[in-house]
Amino acid sequence: MKELFVIGFDTEDDARAALKSLRSLEKEGRIHFEDTAVVSRGADGKAHVKNEASAATEAGAGLGAGLAMLIGGLVFPVVGIAIGAAVGAAIGAVTGSGVDGRFVKEVEQTLEPGTSALFIVTQQVDQGLLVAALRDHSGRVIQTTVDPELETALANALKG
To answer: Whose CA is closest to 8, among 134, 127, 94?
Structure first.
Protein backbone atom coordinates (compact mmCIF):
# COMPACT_ATOMS: atom_id res chain seq x y z
CA MET A 1 0.00 0.00 0.00
CA LYS A 2 1.34 3.41 -0.93
CA GLU A 3 1.77 6.00 1.77
CA LEU A 4 1.89 9.76 1.37
CA PHE A 5 3.74 12.13 3.68
CA VAL A 6 3.58 15.90 3.28
CA ILE A 7 5.83 17.76 5.71
CA GLY A 8 6.09 21.53 6.02
CA PHE A 9 9.35 23.36 6.71
CA ASP A 10 10.34 26.93 7.46
CA THR A 11 12.68 27.13 4.44
CA GLU A 12 13.40 25.29 1.20
CA ASP A 13 16.84 24.41 2.57
CA ASP A 14 15.18 22.64 5.51
CA ALA A 15 13.07 20.53 3.15
CA ARG A 16 16.11 19.73 1.00
CA ALA A 17 18.13 18.71 4.09
CA ALA A 18 15.35 16.35 5.21
CA LEU A 19 15.14 14.86 1.73
CA LYS A 20 18.93 14.43 1.69
CA SER A 21 18.74 12.47 4.94
CA LEU A 22 16.08 10.22 3.47
CA ARG A 23 17.97 9.81 0.19
CA SER A 24 21.03 8.57 2.06
CA LEU A 25 18.88 5.76 3.48
CA GLU A 26 17.60 5.04 -0.02
CA LYS A 27 21.17 4.72 -1.33
CA GLU A 28 21.84 2.21 1.43
CA GLY A 29 18.80 0.23 0.26
CA ARG A 30 16.97 0.74 3.54
CA ILE A 31 14.05 2.74 2.13
CA HIS A 32 12.44 3.23 -1.29
CA PHE A 33 10.50 6.18 -2.65
CA GLU A 34 7.91 6.07 -5.38
CA ASP A 35 8.05 9.85 -5.75
CA THR A 36 9.39 12.94 -3.97
CA ALA A 37 9.00 16.66 -4.52
CA VAL A 38 9.92 19.88 -2.75
CA VAL A 39 7.44 22.73 -3.13
CA SER A 40 8.47 26.16 -1.92
CA ARG A 41 7.18 29.70 -1.94
CA GLY A 42 9.88 32.30 -2.32
CA ALA A 43 10.01 35.55 -0.39
CA ASP A 44 8.58 37.18 -3.52
CA GLY A 45 5.49 34.95 -3.25
CA LYS A 46 6.29 32.82 -6.31
CA ALA A 47 5.82 29.08 -5.94
CA HIS A 48 8.45 26.61 -7.13
CA VAL A 49 8.04 22.84 -7.54
CA LYS A 50 11.12 20.66 -7.78
CA ASN A 51 9.93 17.18 -8.57
CA GLU A 52 12.48 14.40 -8.62
CA ALA A 53 12.13 11.46 -10.96
CA SER A 54 10.06 8.72 -9.42
CA ALA A 55 11.18 5.13 -9.56
CA ALA A 56 8.63 4.43 -12.31
CA THR A 57 9.91 7.31 -14.42
CA GLU A 58 13.52 6.23 -13.96
CA ALA A 59 12.65 2.64 -14.84
CA GLY A 60 10.69 3.80 -17.89
CA ALA A 61 13.60 5.93 -19.07
CA GLY A 62 15.99 3.01 -18.69
CA LEU A 63 13.65 0.66 -20.52
CA GLY A 64 13.12 3.21 -23.30
CA ALA A 65 16.85 3.73 -23.73
CA GLY A 66 17.42 -0.02 -23.88
CA LEU A 67 14.70 -0.52 -26.47
CA ALA A 68 16.03 2.38 -28.53
CA MET A 69 19.49 0.82 -28.54
CA LEU A 70 18.06 -2.46 -29.77
CA ILE A 71 15.77 -0.95 -32.40
CA GLY A 72 17.54 2.14 -33.70
CA GLY A 73 20.99 1.86 -32.22
CA LEU A 74 22.64 0.69 -35.39
CA VAL A 75 21.33 3.53 -37.56
CA PHE A 76 21.34 6.56 -35.25
CA PRO A 77 22.71 5.37 -31.89
CA VAL A 78 22.88 8.64 -29.95
CA VAL A 79 19.57 10.02 -31.24
CA GLY A 80 17.88 6.64 -30.78
CA ILE A 81 18.97 6.40 -27.16
CA ALA A 82 17.88 9.97 -26.36
CA ILE A 83 14.47 9.52 -27.98
CA GLY A 84 13.99 6.14 -26.32
CA ALA A 85 14.87 7.52 -22.89
CA ALA A 86 12.44 10.41 -23.32
CA VAL A 87 9.62 8.13 -24.47
CA GLY A 88 10.40 5.67 -21.69
CA ALA A 89 10.36 8.44 -19.08
CA ALA A 90 6.99 9.61 -20.36
CA ILE A 91 5.64 6.06 -20.16
CA GLY A 92 7.03 5.67 -16.65
CA ALA A 93 5.49 8.97 -15.56
CA VAL A 94 2.08 7.98 -16.95
CA THR A 95 2.13 4.53 -15.40
CA GLY A 96 3.65 5.77 -12.16
CA SER A 97 1.43 6.78 -9.30
CA GLY A 98 3.19 9.73 -7.76
CA VAL A 99 1.68 12.75 -6.11
CA ASP A 100 -1.45 14.17 -7.75
CA GLY A 101 -0.66 17.55 -9.33
CA ARG A 102 -3.90 19.11 -8.08
CA PHE A 103 -3.04 18.18 -4.52
CA VAL A 104 0.43 19.70 -4.90
CA LYS A 105 -1.22 22.94 -6.10
CA GLU A 106 -3.55 22.93 -3.06
CA VAL A 107 -0.63 22.63 -0.65
CA GLU A 108 1.40 25.14 -2.66
CA GLN A 109 -1.36 27.74 -2.17
CA THR A 110 -1.24 27.32 1.61
CA LEU A 111 2.50 27.95 1.90
CA GLU A 112 3.58 31.28 3.35
CA PRO A 113 6.42 33.14 1.60
CA GLY A 114 9.78 31.61 2.49
CA THR A 115 8.33 28.21 3.52
CA SER A 116 8.32 24.81 1.83
CA ALA A 117 6.76 21.36 1.83
CA LEU A 118 8.33 17.97 1.19
CA PHE A 119 6.14 15.39 -0.55
CA ILE A 120 7.10 11.74 -0.15
CA VAL A 121 5.32 8.72 -1.61
CA THR A 122 6.54 5.36 -0.35
CA GLN A 123 5.40 1.79 -0.53
CA GLN A 124 5.58 -0.19 2.69
CA VAL A 125 8.27 1.91 4.31
CA ASP A 126 9.91 0.97 7.61
CA GLN A 127 8.01 3.51 9.66
CA GLY A 128 10.49 3.60 12.52
CA LEU A 129 13.31 4.26 10.07
CA LEU A 130 11.41 7.15 8.46
CA VAL A 131 10.65 8.74 11.82
CA ALA A 132 14.26 8.31 12.99
CA ALA A 133 15.63 9.86 9.77
CA LEU A 134 13.47 12.95 10.21
CA ARG A 135 14.14 13.37 13.95
CA ASP A 136 17.04 15.78 13.28
CA HIS A 137 14.83 18.08 11.21
CA SER A 138 12.34 20.64 12.43
CA GLY A 139 9.05 20.65 10.55
CA ARG A 140 5.35 19.96 10.81
CA VAL A 141 3.10 17.28 9.37
CA ILE A 142 0.74 18.78 6.81
CA GLN A 143 -0.91 15.54 5.73
CA THR A 144 -0.33 11.80 5.66
CA THR A 145 -2.21 8.69 4.65
CA VAL A 146 -0.86 6.63 7.56
CA ASP A 147 -2.52 5.64 10.80
CA PRO A 148 -2.85 8.33 13.49
CA GLU A 149 -0.27 6.66 15.74
CA LEU A 150 2.49 6.92 13.11
CA GLU A 151 1.43 10.46 12.20
CA THR A 152 1.74 11.47 15.87
CA ALA A 153 5.18 9.82 16.15
CA LEU A 154 6.30 11.67 13.03
CA ALA A 155 4.92 14.99 14.29
CA ASN A 156 6.74 14.52 17.61
CA ALA A 157 10.00 13.63 15.84
CA LEU A 158 9.77 16.78 13.70
CA LYS A 159 9.39 19.04 16.75
CA GLY A 160 13.13 18.68 17.28
So the answer is: 134
The residue with greater pLDDT, 98 or 94, is 98
Q: How far apart are CA 97 and CA 33, in angstroms?
A: 11
d(CA 19, CA 6): 12
Of residues 27 and 15, the one with the higher pLDDT is 15
Residue 122: strand, helix, or coil = strand
Q: List C-alpha distances in Å: 102 to 31, 77, 89.
A: 26, 38, 21
Q: Say what the pTM is.
A: 0.72
Q: Averaged over 22-40, what is the pLDDT?
A: 89
DSSP letter, residue 97: -
Please give the single-letter amino acid code of residue 112: E
Structure letter (DSSP) for residue 98: -
CA dist., res. 115 & res. 9, Å (int): 6
CA–CA separation, 121 vs 114, rounded Å? Answer: 24
